[in-house]
Amino acid sequence: MAIEKQVVILTEAASFQVKEMMAHNEEEHASLRVAVKGGGCSGLSYGMAFDNDVNEDDFTDNQFGIRILVSKDDAGILQGTKIDFKQSLMGGGFTIDNPNALASCGCGTSFKAAARPAEPQSCE
């Protein structure tokens, strides 16, 4: 059985964007999975995807009507991470502020964390 615990913080602006994407992709009943994977020039990168499966070792939380899933393996690296959505004249995008990141790359898509060493890769 999944464990209820807030790992990431989703802002209201991010939740509006997630809900819009869910509706566009006909995924209104899915959960938002936030994950960490190997990749990027700093070694780790973030992933967000819609998921209909809840694993036994997932941490779950509901924010602004969105069920958020984080695996037990990723929870330590993501604890306290704030996900926001910023709109500008150049378009919009999600921003991720992770207090556990030791360093971020110049392109802003990857990071380094003490809890999970990873080999840097190209930023393509």
UniProtKB/TrEMBL annotation:
Pfam families attached to this UniProt entry: Fe-S_biosyn
Coiled-coil residues: none
Domain of life, per lineage: Bacteria
Domain annotation Core: ranges: 10-108
InterPro entries, per database record: ATAP (IPR016092), ATAP_core_dom (IPR000361), FeS_cluster_insertion_CS (IPR017870), HesB-like_dom_sf (IPR035903)
Protein name: Iron-sulfur cluster assembly accessory protein
Organism: Solibacillus palustris
